[in-house]
Amino acid sequence: MNIEKIKHRELFKKNRLEFLIRFILSATSFSLFLAAILAPLIQHIFGYPHGEAIYSHLSGICHQYPTRSFWIFNRPFALCSRCTSMYMGLFIFSTFFTIKKNYTKRLIIGFSLILFVSFDPIIQLFTSYESNNFIRLVTGIIGGVGTFLIINFSPIKYKE
Fold it and tell me: What's the pTM value of the predicted model, to 2 decimals?
């Protein structure tokens, strides 16, 4: 077997694994984002008890305070605005963006973004400051980008 075929196989395996990781990230984040929106829509269309299962399932990953959530049809999303926008940002970046920096740089940038995002809830916890849903939207998207940079890695090293 010649060297070119071996390099091509390694590159194909690497691309297939990266595709699988990105697909899992995209599918998971999109389904959580979609579930957050579907719960109030289902309740609006079919009435109160319907859609409560979605709220119940998502309560383990989000506090779901109605005052900190986006609303549709006079019902709050099943995730707070920061969690909703974090999953939206994670979905958008894992679907449409490719980052070519090495993993160490992405890890540093990703943790820096998440650290930056954590200032808003920490300040709210210890002061009388209360952020609004727009700030939660922005910090959630930034947190989603940071999470993408940390999770999306290239585990296979190769030379072209």
Answer: 0.81
Structure-block tokens of residue 83: 């969690």
The CA radius of gyration of the chain, in Å to the nearest whole number, is 19
Q: What is the pLDDT along the chain (160 residues), one digit of tens a residue?
A: 566 656 556 655 667 777 788 888 899 999 999 999 999 999 999 988 898 999 999 999 999 999 999 999 999 999 999 999 999 999 998 888 777 778 788 889 999 999 999 999 899 889 998 899 999 999 999 999 999 888 876 544 444 4
Report in angstroms the alpha-carbon separations of 15 from 95, 138, 155, 160.
14, 31, 11, 13
* Beta-carbon count within 10 A of 135 CB: 14
Q: What is the DSSP string of the chain?
A: --HHHHHHHHHHHHHHHHHHHHHHHHHHHHHHHHHHHHHHHHHHHH-TTTTHHHHHHHTTT----GGGS-EETTEE-SS-HHHHHHHHHHHHHHHH----S-HHHHHHHHHHHHHHHHHHHHHHHHSS----HHHHHHHHHHHHHHHHHHH---------
